Amino acid sequence: MLKRIGVQQLTVGMYLKEFCGPWLEHPFWRSSFVLSDAKDIATIRASSVREVWIDCAKGLDLPPGEAVVSVAESEAQVDAELAVAANSVRDTARAPSAAEFTRAAKIVANSRQAVTSMFAEARMGRTVDTGGARRLVDEISDSVSRSAGALISLARLKTADDYTYMHSVAVCALMIALARQLGLAEEEVRSAGIAGLLHDLGKAAIPLDILNKPGKLTDAEFAIVKTHPEKGHEMLLQSSDIDPVALDVVLHHHEKDDGSGYPKRLRGAATSVYAKMAAVCDVYDAITSNRPYKTGWDPAESLRKMAEWSTGHFDPLVFQAFVKSIGIYPIGSLVLLNCGRIGVVIEQNEKSLLHPQVKVFFSTRHAARMLPEVVNLARPGCRQTIISREDPAKWNFPDLNEIWSGLPASSR
Asked: If exposure means fewest CB atoms within 10 Å of the residue's CB, which of 27, 280, 282, 327 is most exposed?
């Protein structure tokens, strides 16, 4: 029997089945486990979570006569109740990126902790908590619905040290945005997000000294890394309720359209649209991110490079949809306007990808910083246009990320 109780009623030995409340307020990545440490109970009570579900068949029950909030006979009943509660508080109303950055930063921070825990558990041989993965994907999906660019841009600002974990979050968000651009049904969008979150799970089986090596991998080391799709697939097969799309993507996200990928060297239509989506999202986040052995490229420059590689590497229609989903000049791209001012893209214009909103802050004519000003290049009558992408390394603006996000470095 499952019982919904107050957190003050928790005792060591109970089996915690689910938290009640928004996923972001949950103090743990895994929601189903035996409470074996009083410190965990203290952590739960210190959070904003006020009620939880316990499974009396897997752990201690309440003392006889103690009041409960409600009782359920099955896990399906609990899942249905939690789904109704979650949907009642979900906020997916469109918002400008500037308004979403603070909220997205919190999701990114919580996601980092959650995915780090997920990989740690995978290394210990534990099965993936599919329920936790779905709730995390829902939070990311809602943020992308409010503003596609905010979370995607912030997730790109990962450090070399946490690349493996934050890469999963970024690919999840990119997959969700791309799935919507392709017109997939919302359940398919969710499946794409879960697949993106789990696509690199097999790297949990790769030795950390190889995964985090600061220099170029040897052929032998790269051969080990190339085993991660199959290892991840094997891990997911141990889960009882894993999305088949995730299984497919985990195994095939390194396949290429011309058949030169791995592990199965699939060609063209032999690869699913989800795996083709993941191939694009995976490469984009990889080349725009700082890695142990290289500095990430500018977002707009990365798209230009990918366009050069697209023949044979990516499915052309999927790549075109990807560009539309993030913009020709993604948020964070440094650009030069025809008026001689330099700015950074802060918002896309859905009707014209060549005319985003740009925050200008530097005059090349005076070689000096200026008071930041937002210019909507799509505004009727606006004569300013982008004439070139600019290399951030050339200009070396130390506060570039703060300019486009509006967030101090300490909050990201």
From this structure: 27
